[in-house]
């Protein structure tokens, strides 16, 4: 198993693209979080504070980055999970609440760590819905 630092070194100057469903989203979020913080996320429970840095001040625990249900709504999950990356992620994300998402939604995420020149992208592919969005240059 690679350490987080070894993985960062192996991925230096690379662009990784994930295309798929929610399981693929979780793989994207876990990899981007590891690149962002230099450590792996816990498997369960809460996540580190914004930007992956632990604050000296006591903060409310935040739902796990890879568990959208803990955020209360998809909009909140998109906003807060993107905020976690401290400006390194662009989220082209929109989803109606409830079952309407089966007809239309978009979730494309783009993470870039300039320090190691590594980009990770996630394009959601869901059933027969068309793929939307663009890759930032």
In words, what does this structure look like?
It contains three helices and four strands; from the N terminus they run αβααβββ. The chain has helices at 4-10, 22-37, 74-84; strands spanning 15-20, 89-94, 106-113, 118-124. The chain has a four-stranded mixed β-sheet, with helices on one face. A hairpin with a 4-residue loop joins β3 (106-113) and β4 (118-124). 24% of the residues are buried.
**Residue share in helices?**
10-25%
Beta-strand percentage range: 15-25%
Major β-sheet profile: 4 strands, mixed
Low-confidence regions? 54-58
Mind telling me the C-alpha Rg? 15 Å
Defining traits:
20% strand; 3 helices; 137 residues; alpha+beta; 4-stranded mixed sheet; globular
SSE blueprint and pairings:
Blueprint: H1 4-10, E1 15-20, H2 22-37, H3 74-84, E2 89-94, E3 106-113, E4 118-124
Parallel strand pairs: 1-4
Antiparallel strand pairs: 2-3, 3-4
Provide a quick synopsis of the model.
The protein has helices at 4-10, 22-37, 74-84; strands spanning 15-20, 89-94, 106-113, 118-124. With 137 residues, the protein is of the alpha+beta class.
């Amino acid at each position: 198993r690679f350490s987080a630092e070894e993985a960062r070194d192996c991925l230096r100057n690379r662009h990784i693209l994930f295309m798929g469903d929610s399981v693929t989203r979780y793989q994207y979020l876990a990899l981007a979080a590891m690149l962002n913080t230099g450590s792996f996320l816990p498997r369960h429970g809460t996540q580190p504070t914004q930007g992956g840095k632990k604050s000296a001040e006591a903060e409310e625990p935040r739902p796990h980055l890879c568990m959208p249900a803990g955020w209360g709504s998809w909009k909140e999950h998109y906003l807060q999970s993107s905020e976690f990356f401290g400006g390194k992620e662009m989220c082209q994300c929109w989803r109606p609440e409830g079952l309407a998402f089966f007809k239309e939604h978009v979730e494309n995420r783009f993470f870039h760590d300039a320090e190691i020149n590594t980009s990770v992208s996630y394009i959601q592919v869901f059933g027969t819905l068309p793929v939307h969005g663009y890759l930032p240059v």
